[in-house]
Amino acid sequence: MATITISLPDTLKDFVQLQMATKGYGNVSEYFRTLLRDAQQKENDERLKALLLEGLSSGEGRVAAPEFWNDLKAEAAILLDRKTKKSSP
């Protein structure tokens, strides 16, 4: 795990300490990891929303046949398996 050092003015340091005390964070790193995960999720949600809107405005839709869904599920399973294997030690 990488280490990042940041400098904060006293007012922000006090705010972080208050958040740790009142929200149950075990340490400063845990607090900042939560903030970063939330920011990352928000960005992912915005990207998905943009893609969905792009798809909706791309033209007339078509009904997906059962074969489409079967192929999509199979492809998703393969991608998930690859991702799981990459993240395993």
List the helices and strands and how they pair.
Layout: H1 10-23, H2 28-56, H3 66-87
Summarize the structure.
By secondary structure, this protein is an all-alpha fold. Helix content is 73%, strand content 0%.
| Main sheet: strands, sense, barrel | none
- Provide the helix percentage: over 70%
Assembly type: single chain
Count, helices: 3
Backbone shape: elongated
Strand content: under 5%
> What's the end-to-end separation, in Å?
14 Å
**What structural category characterises the helix and strand content?**
mainly alpha
Give a written overview of the molecule.
With 89 residues, the chain is mainly α. The chain has one domain (10-56, 64-87). Helix content is 73%, strand content 0%. The protein contains 3 helices and no strands. The radius of gyration is 21 Å and the shape is elongated. The model has no long low-confidence stretch (mean pLDDT 93).
Key descriptive features of the protein:
89 residues; mainly alpha; 3 helices
